[in-house]
Design goal:
The chain has eleven helices and nine strands. By secondary structure, the chain is an alpha/beta fold. Belongs to the protein N5-glutamine methyltransferase family. PrmC subfamily.
Length: about 280
């Protein structure tokens, strides 16, 4: 069977499984099996080898089970790099790039990333800011191993600590960033299966009202910032008012809500006093 026929059958299987973007996913998985972007188009008229057919069938079966494409291929593009992802890490999402863009518009030479996961935010920032230093903290040891590996892949030096938010972190930073678990427990059942069934729940929800992480980050921010330091946190689209209020109560002298590319509330900026 030639690759174009395999691809056509794969698209039909994914559509039958209710997957949006079936053609795109079938092509991405074919490229993965064949060893790189664009390989399927080069080989679509060629006969697939038996090992290739078996690998492609397994990949399509995994996608039919709603496993995210990034977990099947092992990588996800974010900002300007490809990051390794696993079932122990949150899949980096395009909307989080709004936080990276906002951070790069600020003056800073040291940054702390709380709940670093794959390290996508931290490593993207450090790759764009030569000479800056950064620490990524996460409670998950397996996630930190992924982040360390991504740092090596990208060629960025960073410090990684296993920590429950600020626990054990005594340094001060010009900037604190975070994409914390902000989905309320009551909202989990309504998530897409790719998220609900495959990504680590501790990176998605606080198993409460979705605000616990912000309470912890806000409460410890002033003790871990240099004078005049700033915080940027990603939020859910309905959380802006509540999260901004938490930072104001914790001593921030100014807060702003920043949108993502779709115009939805996505990031809270908090400025702390210089004295």
């Amino acid at each position: 069977m030639i690759w174009s026929e395999l691809h056509r059958e794969a698209v039909a299987r994914l559509r039958a499984a209710g997957i949006e973007g079936a053609e795109r996913d079938a092509q991405r998985l074919a490229d993965h099996v064949l060893g790189g972007a664009g390989r399927w188009r080069l080989r679509q008229g060629e006969t697939a080898e038996s090992a290739e057919r078996a690998a492609y069938d397994a990949a399509i079966a995994a996608r039919e089970a709603r496993q995210p494409v990034s977990q099947i291929t092992g990588t996800r593009a974010f900002w300007t790099h490809d990051f390794r992802v696993t079932s122990d890490t949150l899949d980096p999402r395009p909307e989080t790039e709004a936080l990276v863009e906002a951070a790069l518009a600020l003056p800073w030479t040291s940054v702390l990333d709380l709940g670093t996961g794959t390290g996508a935010i931290l490593l993207s920032l450090l790759s764009e800011r030569p000479g800056a230093t950064g620490t990524g903290a996460d409670i998950s040891a397996p996630a930190l191993e992924v982040a360390r590996g991504n740092a090596v892949r990208i060629g960025v030096t960073a410090d990684f600590r296993q920590a429950d938010w600020y626990a054990g972190i005594d340094a001060h930073f010009d900037l604190i960033v975070s994409n914390p678990p902000y989905i309320a427990l009551a909202e989990m059942a309504g998530l897409a299966p790719e998220v609900r069934d495959w990504e680590p729940h501790q990176a998605l929800t606080d198993f409460g009202d979705g605000l616990a992480a912000y309470r912890a980050i806000a409460a410890g921010a002033r003790d871990h910032l240099t004078p005049g330091g700033r915080v940027l946190v990603e939020i859910g689209p309905t959380q802006a008012e509540a999260v901004a209020a938490l930072f104001t109560a914790a001593g921030a002298e100014a807060t702003r809500v920043l949108p993502d590319l779709d115009g939805r509330d996505r990031v809270i900026f908090a400025q702390f006093p210089a004295i």
